[in-house]
Amino acid sequence: MTTGWFACLSPLAARAVLAALVVVLIASMIVPTNKPGNRSPWVGPVEGPVDTAGKAVDTKDKPYDEDIALYEVAIERIARGENYYDFIVPEQRGRDYPVNPGIAVRLPTLAYIDAWLGKTGQLVAAIALMLAIIAVWWQRLGEEPEDHGRVRRLGTALVFVGASLGLNRHYFPLHELWAGGLMALSFGLHRIGRNGKDGRWVGALLVAALALAIREHTLPYVMLMAAFALWQRNWREGAAWSLLILLFFAGLCWHLALIARDVLPSDRHGPPWLVLRGMTGWLANVVQSSNLRWLPHFLAGPAVILMTFGWLGWRSRSGLLGFLLCAGYGAAFMIAGRWDNFYWGAMIAPAMFAGIVFAPRAVSQLLAAAQIRRSAN
User: Fold this and answer.
1) What average pLDDT is seen over the chain?
2) Under a CB-based contact definition with an 8 Å cutoff, are residues 27 and 297 in contact?
3) Which of 224-228, 263-267, 281-285 has the lowest mean pLDDT?
4) What is the mean pLDDT of residues 250-270?
5) Distance (Å, rounded) from C-alpha 168 to C-alpha 177?
6) How far is the C-alpha of 33 from the C-alpha of 309, rounded, in Å?
7) CB 339 within 8 Å of CB 35
C-alpha cells in the first residue's frame, strides 16, 4: 500500500485535502486554547468562586475547585454509609449546582469506587491504570511491522505522556480522568477482525463498559466500536457492543428516574452545553486536559491536529479507527461544551498522543497521492 488511506484519492482530491490540512494547521496556531485572562485550569479553578457581586473570591485557602469539592463530599458521604441517591440532589442544590436536567447529576459509579478504594487505593489504581495503558500500547505498537521498533518506542513514550496526567491526585474524583484512561486502555486492547475472524475484543468491551458506567461521554467511543465491528462483518462483536449501548441506556433511564423524584419545580435549569465554540472548543479541551497545556498555544494547537491526522498514517484499520475516534470527539467539542467544561477533553486526550508518531508518514503518503513527491514509505 504505497499511499495508505489516501491511495483512493485522485491527485486533485489529495491536493485539496493537503490544502485543507495546511489551513487547519495555520488556524490552530491562531485560535486560543485557554480562556483569555485565565491561567491553565489545571493549576487552579476555571472560573473560581464568585461572590454575589460577581467579583472573584480569593481561592488560596480553597485547594479544590467547586466541582472537585462536590465530588469529594459525595465520596465522603458514601464512605460513611450513606446512599448516593438519598443525598446527591439536595447536596448539589445546596451548592447552587443545577439538578435539572437530571444528566447534570453524575453517575454514582466513580464515587462508590473511590469511597471503596480510599486515598491510597486511588493512587494504586491510578498507577496500575497508567502502567496497563503503557503495556498494552507497547504490545499493540510492537505489531507494527515497519520502522524496526522506532514507532513502538516513540509511540509508547507518547502514550506515557498522555496517560501520566492520570497520576494527578488532585483530580482523582474527576470522572473524565478515569473514563478517558480506561478508553485508551480499551482501544489498545482491541484488535479488529474481519468476518468474525482474528479479532480480539472481549477485554476491550469490558474495560469500555466500566468507562461508560463512570462517564456517559464514553458513549461515542462505544457506538463507533459497534459501527466498526458491523462494518467489518464481525456480527458477534457488533452485537456485544450494541448490547452494551442498550444496557447503558437502561441504566441511564434508571439513574434519571431516581434523580427526578427529588427535583423540585423551583430548581433552575443548568446553562446550555450547545454553545458552538468551534475549533477553540476542540483544541482548548484537549490542550487543557493534557500535558500539552505546558506548550504555547501556537505549538499545542497544531500538535492536536497532527495527533488526529497522524492516525491515517498507520496502515491498518486501527489507524482509521483512531482517526475517526479523535476527529469525532473533536467535532463534538466544537459543538458542545462551555469553557468550564474543558475537562471533557480528558476523555480523548490519553488515546490521542500515539497518533502523532504516524504524522510524518501520513503527510508523506498524502504528498505522494497528490503527486507532489514520491512517498518515502
Assistant:
1) 88
2) no
3) 263-267
4) 92
5) 9
6) 19
7) yes
Residues 6+ positions from 209 with CB-CB distance below 8 Å? 244
Q: Determine the average pLDDT of the residues in 125-146.
A: 91
Q: How many CB atoms lie within 10 A of CB 285?
A: 30
286 in Cβ contact with 264 (< 8 Å) = no
- Count Cα neighbours of 321 within 13 Å in the Cβ-side half-sphere: 24
Contacts 24+ apart (CB under 8 A), 127-134: 127/167, 129/163, 129/166, 129/178, 129/181, 129/182, 129/185, 130/160, 130/163, 130/164, 130/166, 130/167, 130/181, 132/185, 133/159, 133/163, 133/181, 133/184, 133/185, 133/188, 133/350, 134/159, 134/160, 134/163
Show Cβ contacts of residue 322 under 8 Å, excluding neighbours closer than 6 positions: 187, 311, 314, 351, 354, 355
Q: Are 343 and 159 in contact (CB under 8 A)?
A: no
Residue type, 34: N
**Nearest-CA neighbor of 4 among 362, 371, 370, 367?**
362
- pLDDT value, residue 37: 55
- Say how many residues make up the chain: 377
Is 0.85 topped by the overall pTM? yes
Indicate the pLDDT class of residue 52, thresholds 50, 70 and 90. very low
Q: Is the pLDDT of residue 56 over 80?
A: no
Nine cell digits for residue 306 = 497532527
Place of cell 521498533: 149
What percent of the chain is predicted at pLDDT more than 90?
A: 69
Instruction: Output the nine-digit C-alpha cell for 94.
Output: 445546596
